Amino acid sequence: TAAQHKSVDVSSVAVVAAFAGHVTMDAEAFGVTVSRRPGACDTNLTGYERGRLLDVLCHAKAVQRQCQEHETEFPDWVVSSDARDARPRVLWMAIRKEPNGGYHIHLSDA
After folding, report:
1. Pairwise CA distance, residues 34 & 27, whole Å
2. Is beta strand 103-107 parallel, antiparallel or unpaired with respect to 23-26?
3. How sure is the predictor about 5, in pLDDT bands with cuts at 50, 70 and 90?
4. Beta-carbon neighbour count of residue 14 at 10 Å?
5. pLDDT at 86
6. Average pLDDT in the 59-81 region?
7. What is the chain's alpha carbon radius of gyration, rounded to the nearest angstrom?
8. Residue 66, helix vs strand vs coil
C-alpha cells in the first residue's frame, strides 16, 4: 500500500540521540517500534512513545559509522506497538545513508 512507502521524519528526537542532520524512518518501522497511533509523528509523541523512539535511535546511532557506503543492519528488542501478548521480540532494523547526507531507518528485509 502507499502507507508502506511513506517516511516519518524523526529528526527532532534524533538530535537527542546525537544525530546531526535529517533522520527518517519507514512508516512500518515507526509503527512497529514506536506507535501506530493515527497522526503520530516525532513532535506529538507521548513520553512512552518518545522513549521507544529514542531507544531505536540510540541503537541506530551505535552503528551509524558503519553505513557510510552501504546499509547496515542492527538488532532491536522491542514489544511491538500493536502486540497483544506484550512479549519482546528481536527485530532486525537497517540504517542507510541518503545521498543528501541524512539517514533512513527501516525494517530489514533479511
Report:
1. 10
2. parallel
3. low
4. 26
5. 85
6. 89
7. 13
8. helix
Q: Which residues contact 31 (CB under 8 A, 6 or more apart)?
A: 81, 82
Q: Where are any strands of DSSP class E within the chain? A: 7-9, 23-26, 72-78, 89-97, 103-107
**Residue the block writes with cell 547496515:** 72
This prediction's pTM: 0.88
CA atoms within 13 A on the CB side of 53: 30
Name 25's bridge partners.
8, 105
Closest residue by Cα to residue 19 from 71, 79, 59: 59
Residue with cell 511491538: 80
**What pLDDT digit, counting tens, does each position of 23-54 carry?**
999 999 999 999 999 989 989 999 999 999 99
Strand 23-26 and strand 7-9: pairing?
A: antiparallel
Q: What is the pLDDT of residue 2?
A: 39
Q: What is the grid cell recorded at 60? A: 541506530
Instruction: Provide the 10 A C-beta neighbour count for residue 103.
Output: 24
